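Box 3.1 A note on notation
Throughout this textbook, protein chains are presented in two layers. The first layer is the amino acid sequence; the second is a token string describing backbone geometry. Keep the layers aligned when reading.
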Amino acid sequence: HIPLLVQLPLCVLLIHLSDPSRARQQRCPMSCTCTKDNALCESAVSIPRSFPPDHICLCVCVCSENCELFLFICTIMSYLVLLSFTVKMLFFFSIRSLAYNNLETLPKDLFKGLEALTKVDLRGNHFLCDCKLKWLVEWIYGTNATVDQIYCKGPASQLEKKINDLSPQSFDCITTEFAPYQSLKFESISVEAFSFRNDQYVVFAQPFIGKCGFLEWDHVEMNFRNFDDIDSTSTVICKPLVIDNQLFIIVAQLFGGSHIYKRDTSANKFIKLQGIDVLKIRKPNDVETFRIDGESFFVIADSSKAGSTTIYKWNGNGFYSHQSLHPWYRDTDVEYLEISSKPHLILSSSSQRPVIYQWNKAVKHFDRRTDIPEMEDVYAVKHFQVKSDLYICLTRFIGDSKVMRWDGALFRELQTMPSRGSMVFQPFTVGSWQYAILGSDYSFTQVYRWDAKKGEFVRFQELNIQAPRAFSPVSIDNRQFLLASSFKGKTQIYEHLVIDLSN
């Protein structure tokens, strides 16, 4: 297909030579009138992206007085083609003009295959310099042809800029989306993704039916399928912990005590390893695992009046109580993080502001360091990093949730999100993107994406999840997913899609 343009004032004629024998049936473009060989498009603001390939001539007009003349030229040119007008001669045309046609955009790769062009005239048009026109900037950037100066009429960020001076890097055309992928027919209150022996798994705490439900990735069907279960009572957390190629599951229950299970790979099942002290852990609400100086720990936040948030340590054969942090405070969440390369814990409580503990290396215990001022009624705290900066997301069921930044001495408020009815404000990364997802029991779940230029989160997408309680990202087979537990509806799995808006 070799196109040739002929121009009169405010009109453009495209002679499109094609091989009729290879033609496929396609529809006539909207706002155009088609005959067997020709297409007439009046009052067009852009050149049609496609038209029947057996058409020899495409006439695009924005001026009615010249359209009949152009259609006549089309007909003449059609006969010239049918009379064996040699295609090769068209390569000698060094000039293409689309000037003064009030065009706002051009079809991608319009000039592809026309390396012989020496001049392109696009003056007098009003181009929208969005992602759909990025290809033109790339073409101008790499072509040897002369292109007269042209300007952007929009969007606002590009208004009146010279298109010739733009670079392809000035276009931000890559965006993302969380698209529904798989719906699981059960309610859940927590979700954890983990790897064990080169396979990827997820585990959900399902309190209503009383079990930890494990799923594995099916590499053939490309979805998650059932793998195994651990029966339990009023399960609130199923926390995986891999130590020396051994898989342990901490099963936290509201009734009947909490337990630790181990995966018996020879028998291909979970076996109960030990119980957890019911005098200290009466009403578990969160479990966090971590390593310090090569040693493995987990901590259980206890939300009862008589219980105590307790740290447990692996001794090679089992887990034993290492430190009780404080009794009587009804802790709802515990978060492990490093501040200035030193291990810390942040405890959230229904009876006090979040408290920060720092690891004392000499005695191998956590000491109380400080609290987070003016932040009462915080249900949970989760941390994330952007480059070298440390941030935390603070969840509040009543009032506003917060994003805070560590300034070297204190966490200071950076951003406020309305969050009535929120039980989870979870930051996570997928590839190079940093997100935070704010669940709600009363409205849509809000996904925020980090804006590096603003240095804060911006609202990105809404998800319809009933009573969300936890989220976990997972990467499998070069695909990224987000797992979402739902306390009152179906557990959901979303796929993270990367979209190029310039295509």
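The chain has two domains: 32-167, 175-200+214-225+264-500. The longest strand covers residues 174-184.
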